[in-house]
Amino acid sequence: MLGFLVGEALRDLRRAGRVAVSAVVLITLSLAALGSFWLVSSNLGRAVAKWRDRVRIVVYLKREPPGGDVAALLERVRVMPGVAGVVFIGKADALRALKQVLGKDAGVVDQLPVNPLPASLEVTPSAAAATPEGARELLARLAVLPEADEVAGSADWVERFSHWQRLLTTIGLGVGAVLAAAAILTVTTATTLILHARRHETEIMRLVGASELTIRLPVLLQGMMQGLAGATLALGALLVTYSVVAPRLEPLVSLTLGLSQLVFFTPVGVVALLGAGTLLGGLGGWLARAAREP
Amino acid sequence: MIELHRVSKVYSVGPVKVPALREVSFQIGKGEFVVLTGASGAGKTTLLRLLYRDDLPSEGDVEVLGQGLMQMRRSQVAALRRSIGVVFQDAKLLPVRTVYENVAFVLRVLGTPRREITARAFDALRAVGLSARAQAYPAQLSQGEAQRAALARAIVRRPPLLLADEPTGNLDDAMAAEIVDVLKDIGAGGTTIVLATHQARLAAALRRRTLTLEGGRVMKDEG
Ligand SMILES: Nc1ncnc2c1ncn2[C@@H]1O[C@H](COP(=O)(O)OP(=O)(O)OP(=O)(O)O)[C@@H](O)[C@H]1O
Ligand SMILES: [Mg+2]
């Protein structure tokens, strides 16, 4: 029976010919647009998340506290709202870090008469505080510490970037939705043609007592097939583009965004895309049917 | 097998009421071959359509194969039609499918197991003498052959009831005689047949029970 239903659906697609082909092409376009925006946006999202993790606020201390006071100071900072973690960096640690950065030029540091670097606290904000507002509030709280000399750091730039990412996602959804609507309409047109071409079959099926499901399923199936074909093509096009573009873009992206690699869809994402295509096509088929039977 | 009790049918065409059947009552027993005759417009097609529940009477009761047809769900209508074969004046073959595929279509639609389909389709084609033309397309058939293909499709599920509405209407006498012979064969196998025709000569030549309609009334029931 399934073989029969699928066979009828395929026969119908062949009958709809060019209209079915353009429906498939439109589904491909809409899903490729949605998919590529989704890919770009999810990779940018990863960058934003990474940067958010890396937001640090540094509290430079007036003087290095005596050994016994460090633990107490850390504890006072740790319990502040919006603080996820805090590390003490003593003057000596700071100097060592500087030497590491300087590498072979580290010798100049040894020439210094005294260690000029201040001791500091490196504060990691909690996820909630890694927003511009949160970071500003935390900054203010840290600035009133009696030990604090100067406070530095902000999350503004991450947020500006995240804003762009959201904007891009919205544009992508908008473009995808418009194309998807066009795709549904085209599937509906193709299906209307098919219903017309099928009217003799439908009449005979009713006459010989076929179940309503048997009469309707081929029409729904051909719509879903158009959708699935479009989604598969879109996925293929995206995969080819990804495998050509990603290796070329990764060095640049790693430098600018700090992402070592660009990711493609997860298996769940692939299934979602194919499912979305099938749904679009099925919807188009169903709409044509519904329009004919008030 | 078939029982009509004071059945009337009035078509409404806008404000105009067209009476097609008036107080028709009769019974047809299992295995009977009944000819339904009468002038054009007498109500033959209307009557047959009530029997396979293509339409409902305006008044009265219709019972077919032991079932009252007045209140039926869509699935029950489908089930009823699986027990009724119908042929029309135009063969209504699917033009893009071969004769064999047209006959097999019914079996496939109704979910017959694949391995049975070929044998059963050819049985039906043999019964109407058309197995040699199985691979022809409807456009390549004579009208007589097309009508026989339609008959094969109607009997492929061996329905207990066969309704034929002017199956010889488009045919010359020789071809009409062929169709009638096939119908007689089918009837001899135990199938109940109702054959509607306005051709009085054909009806007379059949020498079977004949119901004559006139203006929607049964005027004669003889033979
Ligand atoms: N769908 C319809 N709508 C309105 N009137 C109809 C309809 N079908 C049939 N009629 C009318 O009902 C009457 C009976 O028609 P019917 O088709 O049953 O006659 P018939 O005996 O089959 O005629 P023929 O020999 O020409 O096929 C006619 O007056 C016809 O005009
Ligand atoms: Mg008629």
List the bound ligands: adenosine-5'-triphosphate, magnesium ion
In CATH, the homologous superfamily of chain B goes by the name P-loop containing nucleotide triphosphate hydrolases
User: Stretches of chain B where pLDDT falls below 50 for ≥5 residues?
Assistant: none
Strand % of chain A is 5-15%
The number of domains of chain A: 2
Major sheet strand order of chain B: 6-7-8-3-9-10
**Alpha carbon gap, first and last residue of chain B:** 18 Å
What does the radius of gyration of chain B come to?
17 Å
C-alpha end-to-end distance of chain A: 28 Å
Query: Roughly how much helix do the residues of chain B carry, as a percent range?
Result: 25-40%
Give me the count of strands of chain A.
Answer: 4
| Major sheet strand order of chain A | 2-3-1-4
Helix/strand layout:
The complex is a heterodimer of chains A (294) and B (223).
Chain A: H1 2-16, H2 18-54, E1 57-61, H3 67-78, E2 83-89, H4 91-102, H5 107-110, E3 120-125, H6 132-143, E4 148-152, H7 156-197, H8 199-207, H9 212-256, H10 267-292
Antiparallel strand pairs in A: 1-3, 1-4, 2-3
Chain B: E1 2-13, E2 16-28, E3 33-37, H1 44-51, E4 59-64, E5 67-68, H2 74-81, E6 84-87, H3 99-109, H4 114-127, H5 143-155, E7 161-165, H6 173-188, E8 192-197, H7 200-206, E9 209-214, E10 217-222
Parallel strand pairs in B: 3-8, 3-9, 6-7, 7-8
Antiparallel strand pairs in B: 1-2, 1-4, 4-5, 9-10
Helix pairs in contact in B: 3-4, 3-5, 4-5, 5-6
The structure holds adenosine-5'-triphosphate (ATP) and magnesium ion.
Describe what is shown at a glance.
Chain A is of the alpha+beta class and 294 residues long.
How would you characterize this protein structure?
The complex is a heterodimer of chains A (294) and B (223). Helices cover 73% and strands 8% of the residues of chain A. Chain A has 294 residues and is an alpha+beta fold. Chain A folds into 2 domains: 2-51 and 158-292, no CATH class; 56-154, Alpha-Beta Plaits, CATH 3.30.70. The two termini of chain A are 28 Å apart. Chain B is α/β, with parallel strands linked by helices and 223 residues long. Helix content of chain B is 35%, strand content 29%. Chain B has helices at 44-51, 74-81, 99-109, 114-127, 143-155, 173-188, 200-206, and strands at residues 2-13, 16-28, 33-37, 59-64, 67-68, 84-87, 161-165, 192-197, 209-214, 217-222. The A-B interface holds A 1, 3-4, 200-201, 203-212, 214 and B 52, 74-75, 77-84, 86, 92, 94-95, 105-106, 108-111, 114, 157. Bound molecules: adenosine-5'-triphosphate and magnesium ion (MG). The site of magnesium ion has 4 residues of chain B, from helix 1.
